[in-house]
Design a protein that fits this description.
3 strands; alpha+beta; 3-stranded antiparallel β-sheet; 5 helices; single chain
């Protein structure tokens, strides 16, 4: 359980930045080179590579190099860990809101 929480901490830390979320979103459509991923952002390539290294370190993406081109792909299994955690949280909160709804809408005996 501790390792699971540690993994989630790293994943959520990596996803906390809008640039990294945009990269993950783009990779959801398929693999892309670092150059393609960096193009929409107004930053130097070394700065952008820090984002790529953070995502790779969190296990959200994988990179491979062929010649001078580094290609990034998304790691579905790591995103599945986030999905699992979010599903657990959704179930907890749906149960709580269901109980609240029952409490609010239950028929109460009229006061005499």
């Amino acid at each position: 359980m501790e390792q699971y929480q540690s993994q989630l901490d790293g994943i959520f830390q990596a996803l906390a930045d809008p640039t990294r979320r945009a990269v993950v979103g783009r990779l959801g459509r398929g693999p892309a080179s670092v150059g393609e991923l960096a193009a929409p952002f107004d930053m130097a390539l070394p700065s952008f590579m820090k984002h790529i290294h953070m995502l790779e370190g969190a296990g959200l993406i994988r990179t491979s190099k062929a010649g001078r081109v580094r290609t990034c792909t998304i790691e579905q299994t790591r995103l599945a860990a986030v999905d699992g955690w979010l599903s657990e949280q959704r179930a907890i909160w749906e149960g709580r809101t269901d109980r609240l709804e029952q409490f609010v809408t239950q028929d109460k005996e009229p006061k005499k």
